[in-house]
Design brief:
heterodimer, A: 205 residues, alpha+beta, Jelly Rolls, six-stranded antiparallel beta sheet, 6 helices, B: 184 residues
């Protein structure tokens, strides 16, 4: 990590990240000034699920982290975090009261700590704008993926559990108001995962 | 006919809901001032699933029902959105077709922003660009957190729950794949 010991080295590392590659050097230097650098050892918590959400996010510059979520007694490793990725962005943009996951380092890591105040005090900072644009694209991909998987599982469940009565006309072409909603079968007493997912999909609000 | 609106008050509502700093209310109002405001009647469709999207909307008052069709043509009611919120923005963020149909539930007022203006503002500096990006990220962050939370609840069923068929196993794998994109 000796190569990330000075502001100049941090700036150079930032400039190598894909989202910041086209940002002018002086804007990168300013980003270094309005943020701070955090260094973590191995297996160190950046933040923990259930903690107050705080007001900072982290842009990983070097090393590796993993995102884990505890559900009951189990802890699931959701994904690895690589340099150039941001963790904890909900603290900057959303209003949830607590962290929804734990992030642990899996190798020595250096991260840029981005405080909420930096965003609010420097709305025209080109490097922060570039990071926000990168976040927008990333989140759009995650949301599309979520929608598609939900639809896929629901479709599988419907095909697997029962063959329901089909609408009389071509369903894809009919206007929504004109399409009669077929009666749903009575739910079984014990529902499989896919069935529960289907019920959620039908009734989510 | 365009309704007469108090954009500052509406901007303040957006600011509160999306936890923006106090000065952002005026920026939201400024953002809305460059949109085309229109009213919808009950049952009026704002946009339809699978069509190409050229407009993002701010729901200023009322409620919008979100629905999709499944593979055999059933209309699935996914959610109901209440003002103030954003909708239809995904198609402009990633150039993809509409993923759902949005229909007015009762009378609504929406502010529409066309693709050209959206793309210019979202990458712009200044208060309008800044507040637009933050509204978008906050809206998507909430959507994602809600969806991930529900999926997590489903992949960790109660202990007495049987995981006994291929569909269930496949569902778990698919859900786990989705969660690969999660960053807390």
């Amino acid at each position: 990590m000796s190569d990330l010991d000075s502001p100049g080295a941090i700036a150079a590392a930032l400039h190598r990240l894909e989202p910041l590659r086209d940002v002018p050097a002086d804007a990168i230097a300013e980003l270094v000034q309005i943020t701070s650098v955090a260094r973590f050892g191995v297996n160190e918590a950046v933040f923990r699920q259930g903690e107050a959400v705080g007001s900072v996010a982290w842009l990983l510059l070097s090393g590796r982290m993993s995102v884990r979520v505890a559900t009951g007694p189990q802890q699931r490793i959701m994904t690895d975090v690589w340099p150039g990725e941001i963790v904890g962005e909900a603290a900057l943009y959303a209003k949830g009261p607590t962290r929804s996951a734990t992030v642990l380092t899996t190798a020595p890591a250096v991260a840029l700590t981005i405080p909420r105040s930096a965003l609010f005090d420097h709305p025209d900072q080109p490097a922060l704008i570039a990071l926000e644009m990168h976040l927008l694209e990333t989140m759009a991909k995650r949301l599309r993926s979520t929608n598609n998987v939900l639809q896929c599982v629901v479709n599988e469940q419907r095909a697997h559990v029962a063959e329901p009565p089909r609408p009389a006309s071509s369903p894809a072409d009919a206007p929504r108001a004109a399409a009669p909603r077929p009666a749903r079968p009575e739910p079984p007493e014990r529902l499989s995962l896919a069935q529960r997912l289907a019920r959620w999909f039908d009734t989510a609000d | 006919m365009s309704p007469i609106l108090d954009l500052v008050t509406i901007g303040e509502r957006f600011r509160t809901v999306y936890a923006l700093p106090p000065a952002a209310a005026a920026s939201v109002a400024s953002l809305l001032s460059v949109c085309d405001v229109s009213s919808l009647e009950d049952g009026e469709v704002l946009f339809t699933e699978r069509e190409q999207g050229f407009t993002a909307y701010f729901l200023l008052s009322g409620k919008i029902g979100v629905s999709r069709r499944d593979a055999v043509g059933y209309v699935l009611d996914i959610s109901t959105l209440s003002a103030p919120t954003l909708l239809g923005h995904m198609s402009l963020v990633d150039d993809s077709p509409r993923s759902a149909t949005c229909t007015a539930i009762g009378p609504c007022v929406v502010a529409a922003m066309d693709r050209a203006r959206f793309q210019a503002l979202v990458a712009a500096d200044g208060p309008r660009g800044s507040v637009l990006r933050r509204l978008l990220i906050a809206a998507m962050s909430e959507q994602l957190a809600g969806a991930n939370g529900r999926i997590l609840a489903l992949i960790d069923p109660p202990p007495d729950f049987p995981a006994d068929d291929e569909t269930t196993e496949h569902g778990i794998e698919e859900a786990a794949h989705v969660l690969d994109g999660w960053k807390g």
